[in-house]
Amino acid sequence: MLLKDKIAVVTGAGSGIGAAIARLFVSEGAKVMIGDLADSGGVLAADLAAQGFEAAFQRVDVTDEASVARLIETAVSRFGRLDCLVANAGIPECKSPIHELDLANWRRVIDIDLTGVAICNKFAARAMRATGGGAIVNMASILGHVGQENSNAYSAAKAAVVNLTRSVALTYARSGIRANCVSPGYVDTPLLARLPEATRQAMLVRQPIGRLARPEEIAEVVGFLASDRASIVTGACINADGGYTAI
Ligand SMILES: NC(=O)c1ccc[n+]([C@@H]2O[C@H](COP(=O)([O-])OP(=O)(O)OC[C@H]3O[C@@H](n4cnc5c(N)ncnc54)[C@H](O)[C@@H]3O)[C@@H](O)[C@H]2O)c1
Fold it and tell me: What is the model's pLDDT at position 194?
């Protein structure tokens, strides 16, 4: 098993990509603490536990330091230590040309998609330092690498996540903590389902492989980076995007 006896915290695991990551992790032998703002995280944890997997839920708001500290502490006290963090929680933005930028929207997206990742990395690194190492996987996006019209805070946040990950990797390179990120292209999740149909069709046209990714395909990449098989990989970002950024 890829993640046998690993102890993992996955944020935003109540839905979409995070839920697929939690499912893959437990099926590969990990014990998973699901962190989410929504009740769906608890529903998934109960479902996995009913199937005999080691999974639990702790409500978290990744923008709140005390809340994230509690999530990590709960994982450590329940399972004994922390081996993997997947900082996946994130939200899309209401797009607009920059001359119509809504600052409240900008601040909310930066708060969750960037500051939330930094806060999760902070408390995970503390726990991992205490036990000699671990693996951090941050969720970025193709929009952290390429521009897109009317994308403001989301693009800025995801690009920052890519470079934050590199700095975290270098900071702990000799402490046994690896930090990497994954940049999905368009993935068929509730996040995309909430977008207008015309926007979804425009996304499909831009996908070189001609289809959206499935959340499970992103989870496979995260699982590899979180595992010991990626022992030489740190400071990297894997574009899991069906060729989007290859053009
Ligand atoms: N779906 C895509 O096409 C796509 C593409 C590239 C990157 N991503 C990234 O992947 C990640 C997951 O996206 P998804 O499509 O699965 O989204 P989703 O909306 O299906 O799931 C996101 C989860 O994050 C949780 N969440 C939101 N704010 C939170 C907060 N403050 N604290 C804790 N939890 C919070 C939500 O409750 C939800 O369960 C995000 O970071 C997103 O930016 C998604």
Answer: 81
Cβ density class 107-138: b for 16+ within 10 Å, e for less: ebbbbbbbbbbbbbbebbbebbeeeeebbbbb
- Average pLDDT of the residues of the chain: 97
Look at the chain and report how many structural domains it folds into.
Answer: 1
Report yes or no on 192 lying in a domain.
Answer: no
Q: What is the residue with the minimal CA distance to atom 19 of ligand 1?
A: 191
17 lies in some domain: yes
Identify the segments of the chain with pLDDT beneath 70.
none
Q: What is the pLDDT of residue 193?
A: 83
pLDDT score at 199: 83
In a domain, 199, yes or no: no
Condensed to tens digits (0 to 9), the pLDDT of residues 6-40 reads 999 999 999 999 999 999 999 999 999 999 999 99
DSSP classification of residue 84:
E
Residue closest via CA to ligand 1's atom 1 equals 187
What's the number of CA atoms in the CB half-sphere (13 Å) around residue 206?
Answer: 15
Closest ligand 1 atom to residue 14 Cα is 39
CATH code assigned at 103: 3.40.50.720
Q: Name the residue of 11, 85, 109, 189 to mutate for ligand 1: max ligand atoms within 8 A of Cβ.
A: 189
Domain that residue 58 falls in? 7-187+215-240
- Does residue 206 lie in a domain region? no
Handedness of CA 226, 22, 17, 102 (dihedral sign): negative
